[in-house]
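Hi support team,

I'm filing this because I wasn't sure whether my run with iron/sulfur cluster finished correctly. The job status page said complete, but I'd like someone to confirm that the output block is well-formed before I use it downstream. Pasting the exact inputs I used:
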Amino acid sequence: MTAAVMRSPRYIDIEITSRCNLRCTYCSHFTSAADVEEDIPFFEWRQFFEELGRAGIMRVVFSGGEPFARHDFLDLLIDLKRHPIRFAILSNGTLIDNKIAQFLQKSGRLDYIQISLDGADAETHDSFRGKGSFDKAVKGIQALQEVGLTPVVRVTIHRKNYLQLKSIARFILEELRLPSFSTNSASHMGLCRRHASITQLTPPEYAAAMEIMLEISDLFPGQVNATAGPLADGYTWRAMEEARWGRITPPAGGGYLSGCRGPFETLAVRADGMLIPCQQLSHLPLGRINRDPLLTIWRNHPTLSLLRNRQHIPLATFSFCRDCPYLSSCTGNCPATAYTHFGEINHPSPEGCLFLFLKKGGHLPERWNRLHG
Amino acid sequence: MIYLKANANLVLREEFDDWAVLFDPDTGHTYALNPVAVIVWKHLTGTNSEEDIIRIVAKEVESLPPEAKEQISSFLTALQTLNLVENVEREKP
Ligand code: SF4
Ligand code: SF4
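And here is everything the job wrote out:
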């Protein structure tokens, strides 16, 4: 049975440029299939925005590269406003000045702007993002705050900052006076694949980051948004452990490759105009904007059907999951990292795999220890 | 005579099984509409009164429960409170 699919995607992620003023060591964009030579021109996006307006798309999320590295980005936002669509921006913050901040504040259509900040000081932040980027990112955040906007700060957790997470939290919440922040962690995509040993946390380090994030959540209740990264995995894994001991029922979709909901809600576009299922699945082109109708692709493309039907593939069919006690509560994690590790999207991913995490020396936080048996 | 007209800035996003989301791009607010509410919304053209709309729904929906008339009425009031619908006053044609 195939799950019902909406008539059109709710959101579209657009890599508005492939260029960036930084070269972060763990960047998922560079060296991926989305790292394209040419950005398509203004008029092509303009034409595509019309199609998005007709399709009832509610939000476009602009990323890159770095969206503000594109000289006509603000003109594109003005053009988007001709249509009933809101927007969000994922940025490194370093190119945001007062003029841009004012423009965004007045746009009336901004859902959120996310700025990356990986340290409480230049040394930590710049270690993987490049010299001078901390000062510029902080200035960008402050420029947004000065006009009354509240940026969403995203901390990418990696080997050089996980031990500083408490001071990072204090810096964001107390010095910058932002209401909350979110995290993710460097994962095996793009440039990170080349630099995995210096950027990606080992399982014991991941466990330590989880403990620290829990302490931060205690210190700043409700101010840590755990949608990705060690704390989010921690909560998922705790639920898997609880389900294993029969204390809760396994989640819907447990035992199957059901972890990716993206193809039921969103589509993405590379900077060269190729439609893809998700920014992290940039090697799977579905068609080209302004040539292939968006809704035809959304409803009929075989690759999307394949991704949507992953949820019927039992984890028990993979030797990777043999002997795993968490099988019935696991959803197999992200197909994009399954691909970058194994060259296969129909496979569970080792990132997010609790069984592997424990086998390789990871452990769940002390306070959850009572869960074991 | 009072006719009802939907706020033209709103987008009706029909999603699945005749359910829809009403979306205001200027505020970002969204409202879930069930299939009957979708029919109501589509007839808020400025040429139908509340009675007209109730009549249209009764025609389009098989076995409409008796309390539906009241529910449609309070739905229309809610839309007006949220400024999603305006009253248009005109002579009856
Ligand atoms: S789970 Fe992975 S592939 Fe699916 S939407 Fe999220 S990032 Fe994309
Ligand atoms: S081995 Fe990993 S991916 Fe497979 S079921 Fe267990 S926890 Fe999930």
